[in-house]
Automatic annotation (TrEMBL):
Acts as a global negative controlling element, employing Fe(2+) as a cofactor to bind the operator of the repressed genes. One of its GO terms (biological process) is negative regulation of DNA-templated transcription. InterPro entries: FUR (IPR002481), Fur_C (IPR043135), WH-like_DNA-bd_sf (IPR036388), WH_DNA-bd_sf (IPR036390). Pfam families: FUR. Coiled coil: none annotated. CDD domains: Fur_like. This is Transcriptional repressor. One of its GO terms (molecular function) is DNA-binding transcription factor activity. Keywords: DNA-binding, Metal-binding, Repressor, Transcription, Transcription regulation, Zinc. Binds 1 zinc ion per subunit. The keyword Ribonucleoprotein does not apply. Zn(2+) binds at residues 90, 93, 129, 132.
């Protein structure tokens, strides 16, 4: 089990009970959207507001403790920060899975074609997960 108190502090974040609960939820579930997170948090902190959760989430993103994964046509999910990776998203059940693929060839081709200076490349593939096929 990770020591999230230390990890939060390493990201210059105070380890409040709410932030520790968010960290544990992302650790246990991998990828969580705001509604799922709200549901979990309500069970632990019965008067917590969605605004408070967003405030914590945004601060945790700013300090690179967690990251947002933007999914086309669906709510963003949040995950603990880790090495760059891409995502598979199930169109049926919404399951999100990580996978790692070397995008350097695609990235340099894209940069060459568009003259963009690319900061980040992460792909989101959609389809049907094993359970939904
Ligand atoms: Zn599925
Ligand atoms: Zn991920």
């Amino acid at each position: 089990m990770n020591n999230f108190t230390d990890i939060l502090r390493a990201h210059h974040l105070k380890a409040t009970p709410q932030r520790l609960a968010i960290a544990a939820t992302l650790y246990n579930r991998g990828h969580v959207n705001i509604e799922e997170l709200y549901e979990v948090m309500l069970k632990k902190f019965n008067s917590i507001s969605l605004a408070t959760i967003y405030k914590n989430i945004n601060l945790m993103i700013e300090n690179a403790f967690i990251q947002e994964v933007k999914i086309p046509n669906a709510k963003s999910v949040y995950e603990l920060s880790k090495e760059a990776h891409s995502h598979m998203v199930c169109d049926n059940c919404g399951a999100v899975e990580d996978f790692t693929v070397d995008l350097s060839a695609v990235t340099s081709l894209a940069a060459h074609e568009t003259n963009f200076k690319i900061n980040k490349a992460d792909l989101v593939f959609s389809g049907l997960c094993q359970n939904c096929q």
